[in-house]
Q: What sequence folds into this?
C-alpha cells in the first residue's frame, strides 16, 4: 500500500492561529499530523469553514505556523524553494500570456532557458490534449481546458508536492468528472505526490489513495481512510459504480455529520 | 425528386467560405477602426458585403450621420450667432472668417519656409564664392532666425507636452507601483497626492520658473528655459492620474496571483515584471491617457506665461496683438488644440490596444 513509500511531505503537530496577538484569537488548525507519501494522492475533506484552506496555505508556506512544522523533503516549507506546486479552483492563468507562455512561467522563474522551457511545455501540451491551443490566450479556452493548462504549468515546474484546492469546483458536473479522470491519469503517469482539498466526498474517494477527514474548526484529524483502488483504477467514473465506493461514501458522510436536521 | 448538382453545391460552399473570410477580416479591422475613431467603417463594409444592409446603414447613420449632422448644426448656429456678438475687436468671427485665417496661416507658413530656403541658398552661394576666392577664413554658417511658422509652433507644443508627459510617466509609474504594493508606501504618498493633485498650473509656474532660472544657468544647453518651464509644469500637473491609476492597478491584483508568486518563490523584481506590471497595464494606460489629456490642457496655459514658442504663446501674442483678425486666429488655435488633443488620445488608445490584454484579445 501507499505507506510503503517514503514520506515526501510531513505535517508535524501543525497549528495555525489568526489574530494571536489580540484578545480574540481564532484557532483555525489545531495539532495536525499527517504524511504524504511519494506518488500518493491524499485527499482532505471536512465541513465547510473547518480550516481546510488554512491548512493548505500553511502547507504551501504562505502563512506562518504558530506551532509544529511542515517539511517537504526534510526542508521546512518556508525555506523550500519551488518544492510545492499550487492549483486552485481559479485557474490563475495570466490573461496576457498564451497557453504555452503560461506553462513555461515557473521554468522561466527558475532560470530555465526559454527554448528548453518551451520544449518541455510543448511536450506536456501534446501529451495531455491541448495541441492546437498553444498560442491561444486563456480567454479563448473553456473552463476545463484552462484547468488543464493550469495543471500543466504546475507539472512543468516539477514540484515535489502538488497542492490542489478544490480545483474542479467551479466547473459543471460533466466537465468536472472528465477532468477528474484526466488529472488522476496525468498525476499517475507523472508519478506526482498530491494533496487534494475538496468538499466533494465522491471526488475524494474516486481520486485519492487516502482520505483524511477533518473535524469542525479548529481543524484536527478525525480519521484517515485508505481507498481500496489498485494502481490500475484510474477512472474516477468507473469506481463510482462499485459497492466499496458507496460503503466508503456513507461512512465518511456519517463521520462528517452532514446529515440534514429535521 | 430534385437532383442536386455537386458542382453548384461546392461553388456555393466556396462562396460561403469566401464570405466568412471577408467578415472575419472586417471584424479584425473593426478594433483598429475603433482606435482611429472610424467606427462607422465597419457597418459600411458589412453593408457592402451584403450583411443585412438595412441594419448596417442604420448603424452608419448612428455612428456617422448623427455626428456629422450635429457638427453642421453647430456650424450653422455659430454662423448665425457670431455676427450678433460685438467685441472691442469687432464682431465674433464666424466659420468662414476662421477658415480664411486658417488658410492665411498656412500661406504664411509656406512663405516663411520659402524665405528660409532662400536664406540658406544665398548663404551657400556666398560661402562657395568665398572658398573659391581662397577666403575660407571668412566663411560663416548662420542659422535662420525668422519667426516660427504656425506649424513650428504646433510642433514645439507637441514636443513640450511629450517631454513633460515622459517625465511624469518616469516619476508616476514607479511611485504608483510602490504605493500599490506597499501599505506604507500608500500611506506615505496618499496625503501628498491629495494635496498637490488639485493645484493649478498657474500656481506651479512661478515656482518652476524660479527654480529653473536658478539651476539651469546655461544659454546653450539642450533645452531653452521656456521649454523646460512649460514641460516641468506639464509634468507636475499631469503625473497624478498615472500615479493614482498605477497604484490602483497594482493594488487590485488578484491576491491568489500574489500567492502564486510566493509559492513560485519569485523575487520582488520578477514579481513586478512578470505579474504586477502586466496585470496592472490596462489601468496604467488609462492613467497615461488621462495624464496626456491633462498635460495637453495645462500646456497651453504654461506656454502663455513661460513664453515657450508653441500654441499657447501664439494665442497670447494674438490676444496682445488685438488686430481685427486676432479673434479668428485664436479660434483657429482653439480648433487646432482640440483636434491635436483628440489625436493624442487616439494615439494613447492605440498603444493601449497594442500593449495590454483584454478578455477578448
A:
Amino acid at each position: 500500500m501507499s505507506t510503503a513509500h517514503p514520506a515526501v511531505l510531513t505535517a508535524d503537530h501543525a497549528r495555525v492561529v489568526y489574530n494571536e496577538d489580540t484578545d480574540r484569537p481564532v484557532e483555525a488548525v489545531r495539532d495536525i499530523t499527517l504524511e504524504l507519501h511519494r506518488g500518493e494522492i491524499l485527499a482532505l475533506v471536512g465541513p465547510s469553514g473547518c480550516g481546510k484552506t488554512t491548512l493548505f496555505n500553511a502547507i504551501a508556506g504562505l502563512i506562518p505556523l504558530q506551532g509544529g512544522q511542515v517539511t517537504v523533503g526534510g526542508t521546512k516549507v518556508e525555506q523550500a524553494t519551488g518544492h510545492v506546486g499550487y492549483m486552485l479552483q481559479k485557474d490563475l492563468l495570466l490573461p496576457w500570456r498564451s497557453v504555452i507562455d503560461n506553462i513555461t512561467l515557473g521554468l522561466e522563474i527558475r532560470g530555465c532557458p526559454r527554448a528548453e522551457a518551451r520544449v518541455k511545455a510543448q511536450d506536456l501540451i501534446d501529451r495531455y490534449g491541448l495541441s492546437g491551443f498553444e498560442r491561444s490566450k486563456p480567454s479563448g479556452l473553456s473552463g476545463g481546458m484552462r484547468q488543464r493548462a493550469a495543471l500543466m504549468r504546475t507539472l512543468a515546474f516539477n514540484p515535489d508536492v502538488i497542492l490542489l484546492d478544490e480545483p474542479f469546483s467551479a466547473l459543471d458536473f460533466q466537465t468536472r468528472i472528465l477532468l477528474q479522470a484526466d488529472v488522476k491519469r496525468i498525476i499517475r503517469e507523472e508519478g506526482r505526490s498530491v494533496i487534494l482539498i475538496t468538499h466533494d466526498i465522491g471526488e475524494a474517494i474516486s481520486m485519492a489513495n487516502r482520505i483524511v477527514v477533518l473535524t469542525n474548526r479548529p481543524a484536527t484529524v478525525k480519521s484517515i481512510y485508505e481507498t481500496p483502488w489498485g494502481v490500475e483504477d484510474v477512472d474516477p467514473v468507473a469506481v463510482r459504480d462499485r459497492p466499496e465506493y458507496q460503503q466508503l461514501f456513507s461512512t465518511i458522510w456519517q463521520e462528517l455529520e452532514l446529515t440534514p436536521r429535521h | 425528386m430534385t437532383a442536386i448538382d455537386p458542382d453548384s453545391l461546392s461553388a456555393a460552399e466556396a462562396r460561403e467560405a469566401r464570405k466568412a473570410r471577408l467578415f472575419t477580416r472586417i471584424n479584425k479591422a473593426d478594433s483598429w477602426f475603433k482606435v482611429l475613431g472610424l467606427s462607422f467603417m465597419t457597418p459600411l463594409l458589412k453593408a457592402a458585403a451584403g450583411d443585412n444592409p438595412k441594419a448596417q446603414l442604420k448603424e452608419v447613420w448612428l455612428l456617422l450621420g448623427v455626428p456629422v449632422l450635429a457638427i453642421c448644426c453647430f456650424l450653422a448656429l455659430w454662423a448665425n450667432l457670431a455676427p450678433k456678438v460685438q467685441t472691442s475687436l469687432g464682431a465674433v468671427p464666424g466659420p468662414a472668417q476662421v477658415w480664411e485665417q486658417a488658410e492665411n496661416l498656412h500661406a504664411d507658413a509656406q512663405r516663411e519656409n520659402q524665405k528660409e530656403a532662400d536664406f540658406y541658398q544665398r548663404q551657400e552661394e556666398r560661402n562657395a564664392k568665398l572658398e573659391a576666392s581662397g577666403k575660407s577664413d571668412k566663411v560663416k554658417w548662420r542659422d535662420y532666425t525668422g519667426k516660427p511658422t504656425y506649424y513650428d509652433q504646433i510642433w514645439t507644443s507637441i514636443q513640450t507636452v511629450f517631454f513633460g508627459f515622459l517625465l511624469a510617466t518616469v516619476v508616476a509609474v514607479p511611485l504608483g507601483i510602490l504605493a500599490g504594493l506597499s501599505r506604507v508606501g500608500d500611506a506615505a504618498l496618499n496625503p501628498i497626492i491629495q494635496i498637490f493633485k488639485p493645484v493649478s498650473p498657474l500656481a506651479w509656474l512661478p515656482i518652476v520658473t524660479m527654480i529653473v532660472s536658478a539651476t539651469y544657468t546655461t544659454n546653450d544647453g539642450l533645452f531653452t528655459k521656456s521649454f523646460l518651464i512649460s514641460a516641468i509644469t506639464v509634468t507636475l500637473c499631469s503625473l497624478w492620474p498615472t500615479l493614482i491609476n498605477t497604484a490602483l492597478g497594482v493594488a487590485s491584483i488578484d491576491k491568489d496571483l500574489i500567492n502564486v508568486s510566493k509559492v513560485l518563490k519569485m523575487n520582488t523584481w520578477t514579481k513586478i515584471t512578470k505579474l504586477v506590471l502586466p496585470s496592472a497595464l490596462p489601468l496604467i494606460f488609462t492613467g497615461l491617457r488621462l495624464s496626456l489629456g491633462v498635460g495637453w490642457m495645462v500646456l497651453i496655459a504654461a506656454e502663455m506665461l513661460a513664453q515657450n514658442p508653441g500654441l499657447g504663446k501664439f494665442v497670447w501674442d494674438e490676444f496682445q496683438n488685438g488686430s481685427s483678425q486676432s479673434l479668428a486666429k485664436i479660434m483657429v488655435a482653439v480648433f487646432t488644440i482640440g483636434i491635436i488633443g483628440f489625436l493624442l488620445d487616439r494615439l494613447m488608445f492605440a498603444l493601449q490596444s497594442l500593449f495590454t490584454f483584454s478578455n477578448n484579445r
Summary: Residues 268-306 of chain B form the longest helix (39 residues). Residues 9 and 164 of chain B are 63 Å apart (CA to CA). The two ends of chain B are 49 Å apart (CA to CA). Chain B has twelve helices and two strands.
